[in-house]
């Protein structure tokens, strides 16, 4: 009998240690294109590594979370949000003895498709593109079509399912995907309040007493209590759930954020500027399609709709790169005379 590889030993340990309803690597539904197995890493760990090393992941560091192109160093970006989702999700997954590699792969990949200027940019591209533009589906398009010069990352079915269904309207097929779906909401409710307080747009005393009683009187308590609530109730039900009280409190807090942070007059004014910028870039590239990089232009030659490819290109931009291209195309440049 041949000696087991490190991967096979890991898969064996999963069967012995993980809980009965965990998703095992060896039971994965596989990849769209078959590949030879790694001798060290199980499939979900390989997916995690592929996402971590892809270009779209690195661009998240310069994409808006809530505050458009924030000047302070301590405001969250889309990358720091992603890492906080991953940390929350891994804590829950580890406590429940679920597949932590699958949890982390989904968490790191869930927001790859976000546009510059966050949901503001997403709304504009959804209006301009003949197909629907939804950041969760764009994340899937990135890992299946756009990364690695059009080859995609060839991720497993379970990771793609978790990325596609991480929004409230979706429901992942695996418990690990369900963890990320809840962890995403826990993370942004937690850190968006923290950032809003830092920006002096919000204060703790605006949070109703009922919410504080339900999930905690400050940011640290709320995060700790929400994570504990998921772990306790999920363990009891063998499914990823929260108590009715905690879930209602979290969504009440989310509603307050929309009313007092996301949709204030000042926020809407800045959002309208971002809308005009994204729309102007879209119109420019539709009229000057030769100015997009060759790999995108080649997609049109392969039969992809032009508006879809232009949306792909703009969606991949960071905030600062979108501003740079807008200035290049639409802002007058100083006229310099050579007096030499």
Major beta-sheet overview: none
Number of E strands: 0
Structural class: mainly alpha
Order of helices and strands: HHHHHHHHHHHHHHHH
Please state roughly what percent of the residues sit in beta strands, choosing from under 5%, 5-15%, 15-25%, 25-35%, 35-45% or over 45%.
under 5%
Mean pLDDT: 93
Rg from alpha-carbon coordinates: 22 Å
Shape: flat
Q: Which residues form runs of ≥5 with pLDDT under 50?
A: none
Distance between the first and last residues' Cα:
82 Å
**Proportion of helical residues:** 55-70%
Q: Count of helices?
A: 16
Describe the fold and architecture.
The chain is mainly alpha-helical and 340 residues long. Helices cover 63% and strands 0% of the residues. The chain contains 16 helices and no strands. It has helices spanning 6-17, 43-52, 55-59, 78-96, 100-109, 118-128, 135-150, 157-164, 175-198, 209-215, 219-237, 244-262, 265-287, 294-301, 306-315, 319-330. The mean pLDDT is 93.
Structure summary:
It is built from 16 helices and no strands. It has helices at 6-17, 43-52, 55-59, 78-96, 100-109, 118-128, 135-150, 157-164, 175-198, 209-215, 219-237, 244-262, 265-287, 294-301, 306-315, 319-330.
């Amino acid at each position: 009998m041949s000696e087991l590889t490190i991967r096979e030993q890991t898969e064996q340990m999963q069967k012995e240690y993980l809980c009965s309803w965990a998703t095992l690597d060896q039971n994965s539904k596989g990849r769209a294109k078959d590949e030879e197995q790694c001798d060290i890493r199980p499939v979900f760990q390989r997916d995690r590594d592929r996402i971590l090393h892809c270009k779209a992941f690195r661009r998240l560091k310069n994409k808006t979370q809530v505050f458009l192109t924030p000047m302070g160093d301590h405001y969250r970006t889309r990358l720091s949000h992603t890492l906080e989702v991953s940390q929350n999700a891994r804590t829950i997954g580890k406590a429940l003895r679920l597949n932590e590699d699958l949890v982390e792969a989904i968490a790191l990949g869930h927001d790859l498709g976000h546009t510059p200027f966050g949901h503001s940019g997403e709304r504009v591209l959804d209006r301009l593109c003949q197909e629907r533009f939804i950041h969760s589906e764009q994340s899937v398009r990135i890992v299946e079509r756009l990364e690695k010069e059009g080859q995609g990352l060839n991720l497993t079915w379970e990771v793609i399912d978790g990325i596609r269904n991480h929004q409230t309207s979706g429901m992942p097929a695996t418990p690990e995907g369900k963890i990320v779906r809840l962890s995403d909401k826990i993370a942004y409710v937690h850190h968006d309040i923290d950032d809003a307080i830092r920006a002096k747009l919000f204060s703790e005393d605006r949070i109703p007493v009922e919410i504080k009683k339900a999930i905690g009187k400050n940011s640290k308590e709320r995060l700790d209590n929400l994570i504990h609530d998921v772990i306790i109730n999920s363990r009891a039900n063998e499914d990823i759930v929260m108590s009715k009280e905690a879930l209602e409190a979290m969504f009440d807090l989310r509603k307050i954020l929309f009313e007092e942070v996301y949709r204030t007059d000042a926020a809407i004014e800045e959002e309208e500027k971002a809308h005009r910028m994204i729309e102007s870039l879209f119109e420019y590239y539709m009229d000057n399609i030769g100015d997009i990089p060759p790999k995108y232009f080649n997609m049109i030659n392969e039969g992809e709709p032009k508006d879809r490819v232009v949306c792909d290109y703009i969606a991949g931009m960071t905030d600062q790169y979108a501003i740079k291209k807008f200035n290049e195309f639409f802002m007058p440049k100083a006229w310099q005379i050579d007096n030499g």
